[in-house]
Amino acid sequence: MRRRHLLATAPALLAAACTAPAPAPPAIAVFFTADSASLDGEAAEVVRRAAAAARGGTGPVTVLGFAGPAGGVAYNRALSEARAQHVADMLIANGVARERVRIVPRGPVPFEAMATESRRVEIRIGG
């Protein structure tokens, strides 16, 4: 009896496994100095290359802003949003359609392997 039940549910389990969500697209990271939402020349070039890659598509371009944990939470939330907004504005200025760009400020996050890794924006093209 139990075997029959398992065989009956196998197609449903297989269908559920086949409709699992697709993995998130790889992120393009842009790094900032402490307490700054400005890009240096190298970071600006990363954004220009990301814009060139995004221009050929039609899917969303998600811009996630991060800040490190040092300082106040409200300050770091605002900083993460300012960083994301600056990168989004550069993407749009470099030819990415405004309606495709979505800003997601993530606020302060714990320091990662290096403190600079927490001071970043991630650009996800197509997701």
UniProtKB/TrEMBL annotation:
GO cellular component: membrane
Pfam families from the UniProt entry: OmpA
SUPFAM superfamilies cross-referenced by the UniProt entry: OmpA-like (SSF103088)
Location of the protein in the cell: Membrane
Keyword Membrane set for record: yes
Signal peptide: 1-24
Domain OmpA-like, first and last residues per copy: 19-127
Domain of life: Bacteria
Protein name: Outer membrane protein OmpA-like peptidoglycan-associated protein
Organism this protein belongs to: Neoroseomonas alkaliterrae
